Amino acid sequence: MGSHEVDDAAEVYSSDAAACTQAQISDEIAQLHGEYQRTLDRTGAPEAQPRLDFAPYRSSILRHPTKDLRHTDPETIELVSPAFGHRDVAEIESDLTIQHNGEPLGERMIVTGRVLDGEGHPVRGQLVEIWQANSAGRYIHKRDQHPAPIDPNFTGVGRCITGDDGTYRFTTIKPGAYPWKNHLNAWRPAHIHFSLFGNAFTQRIATQMYFPGDPLFPLDPIYQSIRDQSARDRLVASYDHELTSPEWSLGYRWDIVLTGSGKTWAEPEGDEHE
Ligand SMILES: [Fe+2]
User: Domains in the chain and their CATH numbers?
Assistant: First the structure.
């Protein structure tokens, strides 16, 4: 089956899925989480990564790989660190509020944290990329047809390189929640997409950062596809008043762990997330 046919099938599926109510989706989430809790009680082994076939996340059913990924020994070249210099990324790229002539609308904020390996060592000199919706919950790309205004002063894309202590830092606008077609009245909690390379190309991850106390958490099948509560919690930034700057911007802190048992949840390879 070519990828074109898969796309068509996904379209058909999502239009059927859009008839499901939030209550049906929430019931399915509760059932799957109940099963997970029973397994956890029995085995004591938490599951840090999402299930590929998490049914309440409708479009993942047709998109996810149905066979195990083929494991091969990484080529030597893939084991060496991707090398980025500070010259590769301009300073302006980490400030999403100054990339246009005017200032974007919305709540200005600083998002910062450290990129760490499983032993807690800083991952320095690494490229961190982010992309996000604007304050009205609208992405700049054409596929996003949500009828919310585009902000001519906000593209929603940024990059930076981690410092010697593994710190990354962005200035941006808080993204809005937005609707998607998983089911009837489906809304994604506000989030920022992150992509990181890590110490080796084989550690590359794409993930999402969320904001504390979002009322959409229990309803969102993507967030809930991570069945372990502590793994879900690790995706939520903390509000940091020390980082908040007077009369200027709010501060959020979020660390990313690339390996080990406290690893930050990463999207399955080949999956395309909303
Ligand atoms: Fe998104």
Answer: 1-66+81-262 (2.60.130.10)
